Amino acid sequence: MNPSESQQDLLSNEARSLSVHSLQTPIDYILGPVEKHFLLSAERGDCATVKRLIEENKDHPEILNINCVDPLNRSALIAAIENENIELIKVLLELGIEVKDALLHAIKEEYVEAVEMLLEWEERIHKPEQPYSWEAVDSSSNFTPDITPLILAAHKNNYEILKLLLDRGATLPTPHDASQTRLCVNNTRRKEAML
Q1: How far apart are CA 160 and CA 118, in angstroms?
Q2: Where do the ANK repeats lie (predicted)?
Q3: For an engineered disulfide with 143, which of 14, 91, 109, 147 has Cβ 3.0 to 4.6 Å away?
Q4: Do 186 and 170 meet the contact criterion of CB atoms below 8 Å apart?
């Protein structure tokens, strides 16, 4: 075997392994047909079908997980918010969907009615020692942990949503103590080393 043959074999094996790996994406959860129909109905704003599917499958979470998400990580509630379908939002909340960061999505979309509804819902179900729904999100959230509803509303420059949040007692988180930042600590150490 000459060197060029072995080199070509190596290159073809690498190309084959790269193409196989690039086609295989990690899949955590595959949507079933009922869940696909559920999410499509929510996207289209079909409240009756969404409600019927949830009620038919309420005892079968293996067939329909009400909190399932599409490949873009959107739940039925997020789809309802994006499509400004207040009726569907109400139905989903009544039927027990997890809210997670839906309030942040409603603020991002500047959908005031949804913000009001989600705030009212949060006031009804919130337990004093528990974090709020947008604080308890996991790594699947589209928002970083430092984004609060008030910060996002200010970023969007939406006075009406800001007023809603402030009237309900929203506050900004306390910033870190300036003397504890890495730059200040390093400067202090440098000054001490000079003495």
Answers
A1: 15
A2: 145-177
A3: 147
A4: no
* CATH code for residues 99-195: 1.25.40
Residue 170's closest CA among 154, 156, 181, 194?
154
CATH code for the domain defined by 12-98: 1.25.40.20
Q: Determine the pLDDT at residue 127.
A: 83
Structure tokens, 89: 């939002």
- Predicted confidence at residue 9, as pLDDT, reads 53
Closest CA to 102 of 71, 67, 130, 127: 67
In this structure, what are the phi and psi dihedrals at residue 69, rounded to the nearest 5 degrees?
Answer: -130, 150
Low-confidence ranges of the chain (pLDDT < 50): 10-11, 13-26
Which residues fall within 8 angstroms of residue 71, CB to CB, at 6 or more apart?
Answer: none
Q: Report the length, in residues, of the chain.
A: 195
- Distance separating alpha carbons of residues 92 and 68, to the nearest angstrom: 13
What's the DSSP call for residue 74?
-
State the pTM of this model.
0.73
